[in-house]
Amino acid sequence: MSPSLVADAVAVRLGGFLDEIRARSADYGPEATLFIDAAADTLSGGKRLRARFCHAGWLAATDSTDDTVAPDVVGLAAALEVFQSAALVHDDLIDNSDTRRGRPAAHRALEAAHRRAGWHGDAEAFGRSSAVLLGDLLVAWSDDLLEQTLAGHPHAAATRAEYAQMRRDVTVGQMLDITEESAWSVSPPQALLERALRVASLKSARYSVEEPIVLGATLAGGGDALIAALRAFGHPVGMAFQLRDDVLGVFGDPAVTGKPAGDDLREGKRTALIAIARERLSPDARRELDAGIGDPGLSDADVEALQRTIRASGALDRIEGMIEEYTAAAEQALAAAGLNRRATEALNLLAGAAIARSA
């Protein structure tokens, strides 16, 4: 099945859902229209990986040979994509990121709308406050789509419970991520890699890959053995996915990623890449690295100097080795899972798209 079929089906479902939202909100006034349009804008673009992983999990639990995508899995996949948008809105706000997918981040877009309208007060504060509520609105929309999908569904309870677990995990993971930007300074140096990998697991590996696969299989009534096999595949793919993200956050090409070069350095992200670099650097070089990470005023030359330091430490090579190890673990798990051909092919394709990427 073409990957675009899932993305196209989700786009149609989201379009219909947004039409319903706008029809019910017609009497809210023009400011509410601005707010709803801003939320809708966050749903355009993206790789739809979570939606596609969800569909692949559903395929693993069925014997379907139909080339259309079942309406229930489309609804669940759409809910996941809306929740992803909510997470990105809040993530960009927390990280003070100006861009997302090459466009202004939601809080910056709302700030610009305030200025265009000539409203009174602090446009930046308005953008940030509105983005908090925008993320909350998207979480509510995600719940709406989920409940529409699960109404009368035979596997509603199990799917709802799994979705709730995903939401808890990613929220705690996000909190641990921002905590690590401060707590690293009083943590034992030898514990920093383990702590960074815990954040990667909760914030990304489970949420971005493992849970979408498991949710799709749960919706289709997959049993415990199948779910365990899918987790054994999904988690290492998710870890490799996040480690690739860590590399791109420091070394990515802004023309491809849609984010400034070295954005993770300016934001102070204490990733596995940074933990390994710190462990391997001399005390003087480590102090220079620590002084630069988290400085929003880093120039391009400063970023390039930090990139050279990280690369020279061997941390980049070690992370690439870890990505290979996680990839091999996922391949072994998939080979042992005994899934049907369609699910195996879909999961193989998606694993490659998640790990071997430049954005």
Automatic annotation (TrEMBL):
Ranges in coiled-coil conformation: none
Domain of life: Bacteria
Cofactor entry: Mg(2+)
Stored CDD domains: Trans_IPPS_HT (cd00685)
Key words, A-Z: Magnesium, Metal-binding, Transferase
Pfam families: polyprenyl_synt
Family to which this protein belongs: Belongs to the FPP/GGPP synthase family.
Protein name per UniProt: Polyprenyl synthetase family protein
Organism: Microbacterium bandirmense
